[in-house]
Amino acid sequence: MSRFNEYFLMKTEDVIDYVRDKLNIFPDNAQLSCVEIGDGNLNYVFRVEDVETNKSIIVKQAGVTARISDEFKLSPDRNRIETEVLILQGELAPGLVPQVILLDNTMSCCVMEDLRDYTIMRQALISHEVFPKFADHITTFLANTLLLTSDVVMDHKEKKKLVVNYINPELCEISEDLVYTEPFNDINNRNELFEANKSWIIENIYKDDALRLEAAKLKFEFMTNTESLIHGDLHTGSIFINKESTKVIDPEFAFYGPMGYDIGNVIANLIFAWVNADATINDEHKKAEYKDWLEKTIISVIDLFSNKFLDLWKINVNDKLAKENGFDRWYLNRVIQDTAGVAGLELSRRIIGLAKVKDITSIEDINKRVKAERICLSVAKDYIKNRSDFREGNDFIQALNNAERLFK
Amino acid sequence: MSRFNEYFLMKTEDVIDYVRDKLNIFPDNAQLSCVEIGDGNLNYVFRVEDVETNKSIIVKQAGVTARISDEFKLSPDRNRIETEVLILQGELAPGLVPQVILLDNTMSCCVMEDLRDYTIMRQALISHEVFPKFADHITTFLANTLLLTSDVVMDHKEKKKLVVNYINPELCEISEDLVYTEPFNDINNRNELFEANKSWIIENIYKDDALRLEAAKLKFEFMTNTESLIHGDLHTGSIFINKESTKVIDPEFAFYGPMGYDIGNVIANLIFAWVNADATINDEHKKAEYKDWLEKTIISVIDLFSNKFLDLWKINVNDKLAKENGFDRWYLNRVIQDTAGVAGLELSRRIIGLAKVKDITSIEDINKRVKAERICLSVAKDYIKNRSDFREGNDFIQALNNAERLFK
Q1: Cross-chain residue pair A188–B320, CB shorter than 8 Å
Q2: B157 is a domain residue
Q3: Nearest by CB: B320 against A185, A327, A330
């Protein structure tokens, strides 16, 4: 009997045995190596490699507590959700997620394609690399996975089955607390304020009652709007990228939620790259050039998404009333408003809350980090409070440029 | 072995055996009678009575097709949903639903309290009876069952479990088609227009593109907003009533949907009673008096609901952000807007669509029925298109009085 018939947390030696036991992709006499390469918060990621041929695969296993803190106890069911979502997204947006080789619900583990020729996008952006195809790739991913899993396109009964299959209470709770609640509240939170910005944040965020009221509205939208099967954690650390290709990974936070949540996360994390470039590139020409590429990318993410969304809608719309003239535009406008709101939430929580981003924390100069954080938080307030004014990519950049001028 | 270990559709003799087999509430030697008294669309309702003592109970069994048409094939899982919801609503709103004695998922059947001292409210309103306590009772039912099952009050993870438990794809599809889609579309529908109103409806409803666009928005709200565990079919045929007491029955359409759906159904069906009274009471003084009571009741349903909702909120709110100053009012306003929209949908579909109400169909005078239908449809258009203007009970009555003046 296989020793993998009951869940346990694997070490590297176990993973080699596991791969030999479950799969037939390496020769019997191959010498296999295994290293743990995970740097996320929740899972263990192993690379298994044939030492001779360098052929490799990834084994990802879910633990029962988050790595970031034992306080988060999590059901390993998230591995099933993640892997099933990867398979579905692979069908809806071919080539834009890694290929799944095995799903094992007993071991809460999956085996997938190794993306060795890719880097994590956040790291690449901090190194100020450009990816001319990114906006095109990510908007195809967004439009396809979001619209094609919605009631606009799907049979409504089939869609309700997916709502049930991807209900994700524990990981949603993390987002509800860390994204929507704690960053705007000075009580019972796990926030970690950058010392030099502490009083500014208390004054400009914690004391802004109107901002908290808008966050409350967006939180209930997040908890109650079963619009699409969203990725749920689509920051630049969940994207593998190179010049030619983009792969979205780690959809363990996936559930039926508002479309704008995914798009807003992409926008906010591009803005983190923007303030990082602003703070860390010394050559003014190179700085302007890189910021310009990021701004164009942000504009393209919104505008290409909108175009692809409307095109896909025309071809795929099935709901009889959704075919009504003007409904597609009305629907898209609402998605873009949500996008602005969520971008503002992500910008806030990564600076105020528990889970930071390296784009900000790697800025060594205190004054420059203070400025970077204040730009992000000022844009965030604009996005959240005035979200109904946001329609096009350019609106998002104007808000960013307005905030930049405040702290010249 | 009991012959009730596998599902079959019971006849009256079977039901007597069933009650003896499953329950110990009648003496062994009691002589039991059984009659089928169901007049709904989907189920079989039996009264089992001890001939000597007149003690009685109700046995309700779900069939596999709707009684109204074999075209609707329905999973008998709706019996589980209905009964579990009755039990939960009985805890949240004590005394306002019938008491459940037995839930049997094998036979898709439940046994419950017999409400012999009650009449179906629709019938009583057509007989122009008044129920001074109705508004108080129904608003307690609405505020308690809706707010206490929402994310405002419930633990968010527990609430998500209820969303899954009460997913109800088949019965939701009936509402999506019959309430939201078909009444506003002249293609592929099962609508049945009253001949004398046919051209008026084609002109004023089918040709109103803006109306259909608003119906589309409301339809997607219905399909995606998992706000509260709603009854889902709260018309006056789902209410048993007498002077002292009100019991809401038949929650087989229950699922997590928008609060306004239930409240809007109550309002629309009171308006059906109003146009019925307008058309059928000959004594002008009595007519005015009865319409006045109905108008006051409609106002009270909105305003008492609002007061109870805000009071309950204060005591029970658990979500940290929902405690934010002003959020309760903002939330309530949205519920009342939804209420107006749904009231308009119900007013439309009962006149245009497949499932009629007796309040309208029992009006014998053709001209009076024409007028009654036009008042309802004019109010409906106002409620749907201008729903964001509706705040208080009085707003709902003003719209009704405006429509009345149009057809003086």
Answers
A1: yes
A2: yes
A3: A185
